[in-house]
Hints:
With 223 residues, this protein is mainly alpha-helical. It has helices spanning 3-26, 40-50, 73-76, 80-95, 101-115, 118-130, 135-142, 152-167, 172-207. The termini are far apart. The model is unreliable at 1-23 (pLDDT under 50).
Amino acid sequence: MSNFVRHGLAVLAVAALLPSAHAQESQRRFKVLQPDEMTQAQKDLVKSIQSGPRASVQGSAANQAGGSVGSPFNVFLRSPQVGDDLQKVGSYIRFKSTLGFRLNELAILVTARHWTSQYEWHAHYRLALQAGLDPKIADSIALGQTPTGMKPDEEAVYSFSRELHETKQVSDATYRKVLDLFGEQGVMDLIAVNGYYSLISMVLNVDRTPIPNNGPNPLPVLR
């Protein structure tokens, strides 16, 4: 086979992939802004996001090629003052919560499942496992099932988060378990992670943020 033919076949192979990738990206409602399209307030917000702890997280939406940011931060740019306040709250919840990473990520997965936020699950499933959450627990949550074999602190966080989303309140017994384990600050931090990531799920779902590299949606649709 000549080099010319090989080159032609390679071009055709790449071209065959482009419509799918383009179609996926075109579903996004908020165009990813590049630095030359940003106002000064938007550039300042990007700088604030990228100078924080998210910048050190591999694959973070805070770091995109060319100096842009991915969603939810790309959507935050549309209202920079709101976006800056939100990203500061999110920075505390992600990196300073008294719950610690494992339990925090567990609550995020419960929230992502409640909202069927595909990108949220994609982003935090890996982080939850890296933080020490048993993959079987995460996989059960993805299927809408109550996990078995949870540690006492995981069971408390799971029950509190699920009750809060599904019943809009928590029972006395569930509240007491979290209070006894983590104190009042822990209760507030748990409310905060569920509330903040509900908002993030809303942002991502409205944006229709695509899974990177044309990946499949990780969460099944529950009946």
